[in-house]
Amino acid sequence: MEFSEHIKTANVEDVVLRRPFHPPMQGTLCVTGHHLLFSNRDGDSSRLVLLLLRNIDAIEKRPSGSSGTITLKCKDLCVLQLDIPGMEECLNIARSIEYLSSLDIVSDMYPFFYRPLKLSLQDQWGLSSAEQNYAQMEELQDRWRLSHVNKDYSVCPSYPPAVIVPHSIDDETLVKVAKFRQGGRFPVLCYYHRKNGMVIMRSSQPLTGANRKRCREDELLLQAVIDGSGLGYIIDTRSNQQAQQARMTGGGFESKSSYSCWKRLHRQLERGKVLQESLIKLVEACGDHSHSVDRWLSKLENSKWLSHVHTALATAGLLAECVERDGHSVLVHGSEGTDTTLLVSSLAQLILDPKTRTLAGFLGLLEREWLLAGHPFQQRCAHSAYSHARLRLEAPVFVLLLDCVWQLARQFPLAMGFSEPLLLRLAMEVYASDYGTFLCNSDQERCAAGVKERTHCLFQFLLKPSERERYSNPLYEPTELAIWPSVQPQSLQLWRGLFLRWTQHAVHLEKAQEELRNLVIECRGAS
Amino acid sequence: MEHIRTPKVEQVRLLDRFSNKSTSGTLHLTATHLIFVESNADAAQEIWILHHHIGSVEKLSLTTSGCPLVIQCRNFRVVHFVVQRERDCHDIYSSLLRLLRPVSYEELYAFSYNPKQNEQQREEGWQLNDLGAEFERMGVPCDQWQLTDVNRNYKICETYPRDLYVPIAASKPIIVGSSKFRSKGRFPVLTYFYQEKKAAVCRCSQPLSGFSARCLEDESMLQAISKANHNSRFVYVMDTRPKVPNPDMASYLFPQKYVDILSPSVCVHLPPSLQLNAMANRAAGKGYENEDNYSNIRFQFVGIENIHVMRTSLQKLLEVVGTRSLSVNDYLLGLESSGWLRHVKAVVDAAIFLTKAVTVEGASVLVHCSDGWDRTAQVCSLGALLMDPYYRTIKGFMVLIEKDWISFGHKFADRCDQLDGDPKEVSPVFTQFLECVWQLTEQFPQAFEFNEWLLLQIHEHVHSCQYGNFLANNQRRREELQLKDRTHSLWAFLLSEGQNYLNPAYCPAYAETHPVLEPSTLPCHLKFWRNMYHQFDRSMHPRQSVLKNVLTLKESNRQLEDTIKKLEARLQKHGISPPTPDPQAPPKDQRTLPNHTRPHSLILGAPLSRKEAQHQEEVGEEAKECCSDTERTVEGSSGSERKESYGDLQGTYGAKVEPTVVSLEFGVARMTC
What we know:
The complex is a heterodimer. Chain A has helices spanning 87-100, 130-136, 171-180, 216-226, 240-246, 272-287, 293-303, 305-324, 340-352, 359-372, 377-380, 397-411, 420-429, 443-448, 451-454, 458-462, 465-471, 496-499, 504-526; strands at residues 11-18, 25-31, 35-42, 45-52, 56-64, 67-74, 79-84, 144-147, 163-166, 188-193, 198-202, 232-236, 262-266, 329-333, 482-483. Chain A is an alpha+beta fold. In chain A, a hairpin with a 6-residue loop joins strand 1 (11-18) and strand 2 (25-31). The radius of gyration of chain A is 24 Å and the shape is globular. By secondary structure, chain B is an alpha+beta fold. In chain B, the strands form three sheets. Chain B has a seven-stranded antiparallel β-sheet with strand order 4-3-2-1-7-6-5. Chain B has a five-stranded mixed β-sheet with strand order 10-11-14-12-13, sandwiched between helices. In chain B, helix 12 (375-387) runs antiparallel to helix 13. Chain B is globular and about 75 Å long. Chain B starts with 7 loop residues before the first strand and ends with a strand. Chains A and B meet through helix 7, helix 8, strand 15 and helix 19 of A and helix 10, helix 11, helix 22, helix 25 and helix 26 of B. Chain A: It comes from Salvelinus namaycush. Chain A: Residues 124-499 form the Myotubularin phosphatase domain.
């Protein structure tokens, strides 16, 4: 972990920094193991700009005479420019940034070095445990139990140690079911609908393969889920055709003959490369200010991002409808069950469950449904929309979730306890963070790397009184009702707050929002 | 009444536009309205449609369930009825056809509408906006600009107002000569004066120059405008038309054989009737100013398309967004191919050009198009809105419309099809202006005193013919009709419920820091105005409104403060000096009071006044339900709509017994518990 050998030039004087909303600034640039530090001393006042190297997605260098210009494109979609006198310095700095911004050894990352005065490593890490969650839901305890079959992560490496399963299914059966599901992700409970006792389960695809293998235990488990209510839905986040094709590579789906009480519904949600490319195209379209209205609209269309938002919300709506209106339990999965599955299940919970719409409840949902449920954050968020690196496992599934949540919050501005700035903050933190929360790909990896002992927890921090105030929604009026979003194309909007964040225009809007916020707080305070 | 064959038809079904949902009820036809009353006894929904709002009625072919009748309104409401008996349907259809095509102004609603005001209130309503005072506010008359009486009898130009402001140096012969050289006699006159730089915004129609004609008086007129401004050596002449026809648009409008000849060099061969643009106009003996003949002018085309292109574009847009189960991609592609946002951008761009010329360069600008009452009105009024914070207040915005649109003769009667007229004259020019303003309010949330609802209300009444303001094509005609004596003014009505149109984010100090607005017309900043074009498609709108909520909060706060004052006064009367005012602790019984003050919701949660019974009735179907459950007012899509939007659930499992749905309003469930 010797950063210094990668820093040939640590300091350069007379660098000019250009960034959105600020006039160009001249000062000293300094490269450290994790940050770019820019300081400018103007008379008595000195200003400091600190940029996490991890936040840099792409770097472009352009020599001009004896000096050079470095353009930094960040994962929070901001674009900065540094004019560096001295060609060699410029190249050295560029090389350092290139190397240090793409470290992939977890223990070298900044969260392991971040030690703010106000936080202590002894503070609780995470918001709640599976045991606490289970203990709180008394009404489900007669039919559901907490299983520790995965306590050493041997049954399913991407699951947490404790999961909720039907009471009648013992651990031995679970082990067998896990062998029949990709990555060992056997069906587990993720939401219990108090009103009618129906549940949302999630898993990965069954490994039926080309010769339609069956697994008694798997069928037994699903039968136990709907025990008594007669019918269940399986929402498969792949198209029917994709599901059929998956059989060729060992995957598959729950066939009607083996799972007679389950009705499969296919909804194709894009993921992986397609989603990443969609984001890249969208950000490119937003960044190019030269085109005409027609070209902009066709580029927006071509990126397909809003279609993905639409499909995700519509599928979540369908899922919520199955549970709430039709009164049936639902199992949701795609292939691995770590991406679109989580997207749909968490959106459905936001629609149905008022508890997930408070600030703490929402963070709790993210912890349960994304962190503990094993969304591979490190792989998915290694690069953002600017990177030229060859795509590997990157996919902005979490950003898509945040966008969908934003759409929900926009349609129900009083129903959410948190505000847009929280979503923007999360969109930034997930790619580059001082905190350890989004490190690694699963709970197991986080434990192995000592994330919980050696880094600070973002969610705990966001719930501290000062932060809580910043990110809460002053208009919040709790409602017990389900919130059904409209998914008409005319009702969906481009998330300008995120994608057009660095245009001058955004400043007016932010100011107005701030103003409105203060006004509401003032009004509320008075009455 | 003699046109109404069947005043009442029962068992009519109203189909929802975007879902399979339907409600049944009774259709009533009155002299002024078509009314649908839902038969559901609990929360009977009512839809009142003013005949003047109906743009078209279409009778579709008979189906097994009845005879469908589709009504499209000018406020973008679309209703689809199914009438059981063909004969009833036909009666309604033919009555409506007659009713919605009034042939004389006297048939319009404004002449029978009576909002229970006394004569004095009515007169006061008409005196609210005084244009003479408005020019005074701008600093006119002054040493360079004067009021002229040449048009006192509408002799020089019958589509202009009586009072006109011209440069001191423009003598009567110059004015008369210039007016003869300008289409419809609309010679250059002052419409806005930018006091800080003494720069003027003038407007007129195109010169009848053809290819070579000159008019010395007109040249002197421009010279006089130029001389009146010492800050700049030249005057900009903005021709708001495109220089050459847009080839896309041309192919869209004309058969392929014409397209090839639509290049600048040969477009003189175009049939004059096409009247596509400035170049084509030249062939018809009209045209634009030749820089060689006019000293000190800078000529500029800015490229806003004509009324026909705009009409087609909006039609296309409405067609796209009216499609059922529209996909996101088709929506975006349709938005693109309609060209609507492109046209909006062109108008705003022109206003920005005007604003920069005046405020930055300090130059005077003369704006014209063909006749100077469509594009010219758009650009002048939008430019003034960017330059002058006064026009961003509620009162100022009314004055602006009064000045640039009503008094300068935007042909509201023709463009809004008030009387049965030439369909080619109909065009959404004013709607487009309102949309441009809306785009600005979205970009500068703190700059405008009014909210979106005011724009929607104005749009509503431009077409309702309920108030006299927008009737007829020009001031002269309005005087002949004695509108001020026989009808009521919309402005008075709007001001009477002004608190509903307040923008809670408005910051008066913003005007000091940003006297001139510099909007962005980057395409990514232009949005589709859902609340206008889907105003009545409730399922599409946000289910809760920030605007409404904040307005309610402010209102209830104000009431609490009032209560405190009253209580303090009472204490004082009893000889007890009030404790230091503590707004935190109003008496308990008063705290429940704010609930009923929550403004009533239309789609935006935009408020409505109950003051006006008639008006309330018209839009009241939404307002009423809100009263039933103010606490949980959350609008949304119904169960069946959701089936539609989310998928095939219904088909797979057949009809289910409805779970307990808490119907919050309007028979459309939004949130269920």
